[in-house]
Each structure stands twice: as structure tokens, then as C-alpha cells.
Amino acid sequence: MSASIEPLLSVENLRTSFFTQAGTVKAVQDTSFVVRPGEILGIVGESGCGKTTAGLSVMGLVPYPGSVVGGRILFRGTNLDEMDEDDRRIMRGEAMAMIFQDPQAALNPLITIGNQIAEIFNAHGRVDADEVREQTLVALSSLGLPDPEHVMQSYPWELSGGMCQRVMLAMMLVLEPELLIADEPTSALDVTLQSEILDRIMGLAKDSGTAVILITHDMGVLARAADNVIVMYGGRIVESADTVTLFHNPKHPYTAALLNAIPRLDRDMRPLRGIPGAPPDLLDAPDECPFLPRCNKATVVCRTNPMPPRVTIGEGHTLACYNPLTEGRTS
Fold first, then answer.
1. pTM of the model
2. What's the pLDDT at 1?
3. Contacts for 44 with CB less than 8 Å, ≥ 6 apart
């Protein structure tokens, strides 16, 4: 993706926190990235690293007791946090949309699929019943759902998880948004359905110029679909690069550890290497590098200094690490 194309979305120093009785959970800290039309940006990291919260922050859907406490989110140059809620609600669906991680939980079990999709059209001023029905059938058919007429009349609990995932994707695409945030769109699906969903998302970016933020824990998904990748840990971006660079020359020990944990068919059989320890507690976020307790490359510099700044180390390649890997390996 050419850097000369103006960003559709710019996130600058985003900070999102949850204010609980136990204290403040700093879920996202000083996070910045851009997404351009037609680009698929992958966000990867372990559960609890802040990737879903970053997506919800962009959409203005951070649940209570959380809120965006700092930074700017610019869409087409407009600061979304300065928009009133009515304008932002209209923008959701028409200009940007989000596929949630658990499609069966995101769909209303008491309303048929057809009526749920119709609600989207009606909320944005499209009320002609025949037109809505026709576009709903087209949307469901385009996702490869068998017998879309039957699907329209079905309730979510009557459909499989894979069908619900495709229904959610159809719902998010009926208004042709410019930005799609897909949160774990292939989780809990078999490999055939994973491939179909990824092909559809990649086709959107290529054919329609839709910008996509692909949130996942699956490095294999990113290898296939993403143009650029940011790696999050402890609520922060620790590394970002184009996909080829990140996979062939990772510099952060955490990125390399994630890659080392992927099963490979092109290497001799050997045990998978996990990452010892656990992610940090963001209720008591550390001042130093959050990966320090689990890092086998840490030095005295890492242990005696605050969080390393995120710096540019190559074209489009940024890193937050005092002791980057020299050959993209952890050992």
C-alpha cells in the first residue's frame, strides 16, 4: 500500500481506560496508526493486549465503565471525538462498520435475520420494503449462504456459527462502509469457512477500496490477508511493519516469540515454543517495558529505564525495544 495515499483513518496517541472499583485499567496507551483506502491493517497480540478495545474506541463503542481519555481519532480528517453522538451514530454503518468476535452473541436471538438487516437500512433512511428485501437477498447470497430466503426467515439460534459469521459480515457490508473493523472474524470456524471469509474481506479491499482493520491472534491469518501489521502487548504497540518485513525480519522479542509459536510444515518436526509467563495486569500497568518479565533478551538497560519509545528503524518499520533482535530470532 503506497504511503502517498492519504489515510482514511488516523489514530494519534489513543488512550482508553476502564474505571473500575478496583482501580483504573489502562487498556490502550499511546497507540498511533493509520489505515488507507484499500489497505488491510492487521492488529495482533494475546488476549487482553488492547486490540479489541482499540477497535471499539475507533467506533465510539467502548462499553461502560470505559472511555477514551486521550488522543485523537481522525476519519477523513474529522476528529470523531468532537462529533455529537447522533452524527457519529449515522457514521456507524454508512461510513464504518465492525464485525464482532462472537456473531451469535451479537445477533438478537428474538428477531429474524431479515428483520435485523432491515433495521440497518431503516436506521439510515432506506425504508422501501421491496428494495430492502432485494438488497438483503443480494447481500446474503454474496456471502455464499445457501437459500438466502430461508436464512432471512431464520433466527440466529437456528443457524450455525459459520452462518452467523457470514450473516454478520453481510449486515456490516449492506451500506458499503469505507472502513471495516473485523474482530476475530475467523475464530471458531473450520479452515474452509476461514478461507471464504478471508477471501471476501480481501476482495472488499481490492475491488471496493474498503479499508480494513483485521484484529486477530492468528499470525497465519495475517500472513495471508494483511498488508501491514501492528503487534500489541500490554496495551501498547511494540512493533509495526509491512507484513513481509514483520514475518521475515521481526525485531521485537515478543513478535519473534509469536512467530516461533506457529506450527510450520516446512521445517523438521520439533516441539512448539510457547511464551513463558503471563501478560501484565493492566490494572497496575508497569512503567517499564510490559514484556520485560517474559523476555529472554532483556538487559540491564531494559530493567533500569521506563517504557522504550516507539521509533522508526526502517521504511514503515517501527519498534519499541531497547534490545532489538539482530536476526529476527529469539534464539
1. 0.90
2. 55
3. 51, 216, 217, 218, 219, 222, 229, 230, 231, 232, 258
